[in-house]
Amino acid sequence: MTLENKTARYTDVMKREIVLCLLFSALCLGTYSQPVEQPELPGDHSPIPAIEFTHFPSRMHAFIWRNWTTVPALRLAEVLNTTVENVEKIALSMGLERQKGIDPIWSGPKGYITVLRHNWHLLPYEQLLVLLGMSRQELAWRLIEDDFLFVKLGQLKPYCTPLYYREPSLQMQQQAASISNWLRELDKVIVPETARFAFTRDMSSEESGWEMREKSNLAIRMVFSYFAEFGDPLKDPEISSYPDFLLKRLSEKGINAVWVHTVLRTLVPPSGILPGDEDYAERIGNLNKLVQRADRYGIKVYLYVNEPRAMPEEFFDSQERKELIGVKGGQGGDLYSLCTSNRIVHDWLRDSFEKVFSSVPGLGGVFTITASENLTNCASHGRHTQCGRCKELPYDKIIAEVNRAIFEGVKKGNPAANVLVYDWGWDDNQAEKIIRQLPKDAWLMSVSEWSLPIERGGIESRVGEYSISSVGPGPRALQYWKWAREAGLKIVAKIQVNTSWEVGSVPLIPAMDLIAEHAGNLSDESIDGIMFSWSVGGYPSKNMALFQEVFNNPQQADLVRFAARYYDKKSAPHIRNAWHCFSSGFAEYPYHIGTLYNGPQHMGAANLFHTRPTGYKATMVGLPYDDLASWRAIYPTDTWIGQIRKVAEGFEQGYHELGEALSLCERKNRTSIRREMELAKVIHLHFSSVATQATFIRERNKYLEATEEARRLNSLKIMEECVRDEMLHVKELLPLVLRNPAIGYEASNQYFYIPQDLKEKYINLNYTLKWIEKEREVHSYTDSDTGPISPAPGSPR
What we know:
By secondary structure, the chain is α/β, with parallel strands linked by helices. It comes from Petrimonas mucosa.
């Protein structure tokens, strides 16, 4: 049975298994239900086998390797049911150094996703719980509620048998020795490592000197924290997602608002048949602390509102509660919306926001998402015709009324607070009607570049996600803003100014021409506010400062002068040339939402090679696997690879221009320019690696399907070239990543990769090279065509 067939069969099983009432028990049920001791975990009984990573001697070796820099040896021994000495023996046999000290952040809400991703194909759930130090209830909640984490992991749990220690065989010992030898080949490029997450404790050396020089013309200039916890940040008494030093840096870049993800029912007490949380006062207290802290830097705090969140079936345990039910849906399809056409729900929504804003003086406001994302109102996923109350109501009235209820509650609690209505996910055919029904003091927010027509590599399409390579505004935003102005509303542009899912694992993309062009275009539209980031892109950068300066004075936009001001006159022309190279290259990006979500650009050279198809589909900004068909989306393979190479070339050319700037600059600017060069090199290496990976997969597939020896040998030759190119990518990237802990990181996904993953890739490449040599020997002795082939027994996957 193919993996696709298994997945189809498994999906039906999974729908019955994911009992979301159990997943949400901690936050949903509050005081009206006792916690469930043994909730089901999503996909807990999957029949789909995990990938075998045969570049390691055993799964045990892979487990110890991948966790050696993130999990203490004592915890690894506990998982394997063995001693620390045995764990250390295996680690040392592969050339790993003795553990020094593991940062506890890896086991907390800001680091656990990376650990979970490392072990998704290695351990069953029961051992993952031990490894993470989590209860079933907490992991179940996080997989669903922490920014769609289970979706990012592929909406299935690969089947793994329990993993326990066993003495390595002679063959395993020999392979471990080979790993140790390969690891020593990297010694020449190893530099002292700056601790991962260092930016969460200090940003004193980051992007200094790029302060705003004048007051912005924008009333709202909002971002998300570069390293915020997405799930439940207000439970943290330190509010470490928004420390003073970060707020100070953001203020210097002209930012005057930050946003926080939360769930409304966690901020209010339970009330009769309506949801709430016993710990609401703790979160409200922490929210007050954050508001006061941010106020010291002239920054307002906004809440991301995607409400009212759907509830599990267990919540509706009485006839009164059953009367609140709207439609069924959500992740797994096992949640029920709280119908906002029911006056009880409508009033609870309004009154809850009044309570929050009355309890937190100075809270800046909210931005709402009322379609797509989580299941909320009955029309949010287009299913309102399935609701007994909503089926006779028009879509536009339901969406508008939800926004009005939120608006009324916020304004009653604090008349000075702002309500930004985000049109994400709205039915375009209903948008004008919705906008004309919104309260006159509301603000309409639209993605600037959405629906923009583009052409890349001869392929025409339209922008359907956030983008820096595509310069807005597009026709959708322009039309929506026109309707909003006619309705008397203020308007906000949602953009990405630092980075996007085009390459989400770098803090910023220095495509300054594109940033400046977007700023100038929006300046012509009389925008009242800008939201500069989603969860990706909140780094306090020069991009933010440049955008605002150009927005304020588009006629005086001069990137040479901008470079001279922040560096010096001698180096400025080359720096400006570098920005042009970056922008020209990035404008060639083969843009499509499929590439953004499924491509390997976030992992770069850390994504493993597989010599036969894994059968796994790439996941949403999570695990790209070897799913080239999903990576390239609407583009032919060769076209997609060619466009990716153009991006890489642009950053390589810009890197050399920065080198010229370095030779001319004043001594005081050398460190800053070197940092710019390193970032450019990282982005170049990411895209060069992506092109190499795609070429390898293309040739691997040709090799497995070929019937002629000449074609097989040619594919093996190209595959070998790819392996050797990728080895160079790893060797060049590794020291850059060791020095800069921001590389590989994004807030909602945490670390896409760490140095240990690049070292594993080097092992994987050496093992792949051995496989190629073995395959070539087999075909050198073949005298006749034998039809399509399978790899030799024991080949790495």
